[in-house]
Specification:
With about 280 residues, this protein is of the alpha/beta class. The protein folds into two domains: about 5-155, 3-Layer(aba) Sandwich (Rossmann fold); about 155-275, Hypothetical Protein Tm841, Chain: A,domain 3 (2-Layer Sandwich). Helices cover about 40% and strands about 25% of the residues. It has ten helices and 13 strands. The chain has helices spanning about 15-20, 45-55, 65-75, 95-105, 120-135, 140-155, 165-170, 205-220, 235-245, 260-265, and strands at about 5-10, 25, 30, 35-40, 60, 80-85, 110-115, 155-160, 185-195, 195-205, 225-230, 255, 270-275. The strands form three sheets. The protein has a six-stranded mixed beta sheet with strand order 10-9-8-13-11-12, sandwiched between helices. Strand 9 and strand 10 form a beta hairpin. The protein starts with a strand and ends with a strand.
């Protein structure tokens, strides 16, 4: 039977892309006031960012429950006996723990591997996409799991923030704490290191950020997959794609909008560039 792949909404794999890939996406939750919404299911990215910008209330987030994953496992185990689950970094969310607990609750012979991507957004999503490719080429659970564990080390994310206040208020600032005292005119670039946010550099303009990302990406000898996503500024993301076009075909660059749960911490005008290195 074909391996089925599960991820979470922090992979920024949209419903359209998930349907194309045949991936099941388990939503996290975002709360405005007393109302809890399933990420990308009960609140769209457009509605979320409108409320984030215009309302005084600061949203909060929570991971899926073990039962959320268990229901997915039960349904998929009717179609297959091998499931691969790739989730957001365990240092950013409790999603990994929920996925692992649900595996222990499943009372059948379905084999389930749960992998901590050590990343987020399409840094996680590209790992999922490459796993799907491997399965389509005939990889069984053992082979696609081995590939995915290697890809955790090959996946990279560069995040451009207009402000770090959302990341700080949400308690996800990690090793980037030292950037909080920066001048307001300075824009931070962060990455994921050891599964948590860490500083790369600071720039004074979007154009400087584009130049920095181009320089960093162009130094990688063999990029397998590349993605650009944004929270509220499609125009900025388009500029990034055009900047990268000389080194990677822009029609092959994956595009997405940063999910509501990630947007709670990224804020407006954020952007993320993710790439997956090919095996050496």
């Amino acid at each position: 039977m074909t391996v089925k792949i599960v991820t979470d909404t922090l992979s920024d794999i949209t419903s359209d892309l998930a349907a194309e890939l045949g991936v099941t996406v388990v939503p996290l939750y975002v709360r405005f006031g007393e109302t809890l919404y399933r990420d990308r299911v009960e609140i769209s990215t457009d509605e979320f960012y409108r409320r984030l910008i215009n309302e005084g209330a600061f949203p909060s987030t929570t991971q899926p429950t073990p039962n959320d994953f268990l229901e997915v496992y039960k349904n998929l185990s009717k179609e297959t006996d091998e499931i691969l689950v790739i989730v957001v970094s365990s240092k950013l969310s409790g999603t990994y723990q929920s996925a692992a607990q649900a595996r222990a609750l499943l009372k059948n012979d379905c084999r389930i591997e749960v992998i901590d991507s050590q990343s987020v957004a399409l840094g996680e999503g590209l790992i999922v996409i490459d796993a799907v490719r491997a399965v389509k080429e005939g990889a069984n659970l053992e082979k696609v799991t081995a590939l995915t564990r290697k890809n955790v080390e090959r996946s990279h994310l560069i995040a451009y923030f207009d402000t770090l206040k959302y990341l700080a208020r949400g308690g996800r600032i990690g090793k980037a704490q030292g950037l909080l005292g920066s001048m307001l005119s300075v824009k931070p670039l962060l990455t994921i290191r050891d599964g948590e946010m860490a500083p790369l550099t600071r720039v004074r303009s979007l154009n400087a950020a584009l130049d920095y990302v181009y320089s960093m990406v162009s130094a990688i000898p063999n990029i397998k997959l590349l993605a650009v996503e944004h929270s509220t500024s499609l125009e900025n993301a388009d500029k990034m794609v055009e900047k990268l076009a000389p080194i990677f075909p822009k029609e092959k660059i994956y595009r997405s909008v940063i999910s509501p749960v990630i947007g709670t911490y990224a804020g407006p005008d954020a952007m993320a560039i993710s790439f997956l290195e090919a095996e050496k």
